[in-house]
């Protein structure tokens, strides 16, 4: 990908709090319409990275371009193109759901274009986040999960071209989570919204993300599709089969190539073939463990 076509372009990003470096030379990009998941253990630097990209935190060093601008200097027009999902709008407890979304949405009207009409129609947006029944309710009367849906609605009311979602489904019940996943997919597929998602839910990352970036100890330890990442863990696929009445089990790096060879050699004599690929969870844990071992030996 050329840097100019990237919606997010981060090169050599560093962040230091006092005398502690928490981001070391972080480099990654996101394309138009791509869903990127940023994963990593607690304290890895995900929130710090996202807040720098959102323009809420000033970096110590490195080049950061977000929708063509440096977020540290992004003006009103730039901000109108970026969606941020913040934690609950507690100060607005007396506002009603539809009223707040219409009020906040009005701010984006001057940035409307024929290609991207802004803001979302409040009722369509309320339906998209599953709050139709609660549209007339005061915010302080919503449950935690309903409030979180409202947070998401507030984040996307201006039809952002780039959306930051920081652990968006943490308080969602399974139904709300599934609805939310549909919404994220449709934002990316139908509206070409680029989405940067941080999550601790690996299943969510695997379902939603086109690409996964793993941050550990302030460094990127992996960047690729879920399949790319699992290929980096040699010997993770488990292939089982029966041959001449005997059961065989083999751990291999590339199960497709292995099975092709197996059939090439034994043909129809191979029975009860079963392939188990490593889950993203196993891959993630192996990559993080490997990065942490490397870090310890360098210390
Ligand atoms: N304002 C701050 N001052 C000093 N250190 C900070 C500050 N904010 C974060 N840190 C430190 O920076 C590191 C990265 O924190 P960050 O919140 O970015 O991690 P994270 O990956 O988002 O973690 P989590 O998954 O727990 O939310 C941590 O060691 C944290 O203690």
Automatic annotation (TrEMBL):
Keywords: Antibiotic resistance, ATP-binding, Nucleotide-binding, Transport. Its main location: membrane. Signal peptide: none annotated. Residues 8-242 form the ABC transporter domain. InterPro entries: AAA+_ATPase, ABC_transporter-like_ATP-bd, ABC_transporter-like_CS, ABC_transporter_ATP-binding, P-loop_NTPase. Pfam families: ABC_tran. One of its GO terms (molecular function) is ATP binding. It is a peripheral membrane protein. Transmembrane segments: none annotated. It is found in: Cell membrane. This is ABC transporter ATP-binding protein.
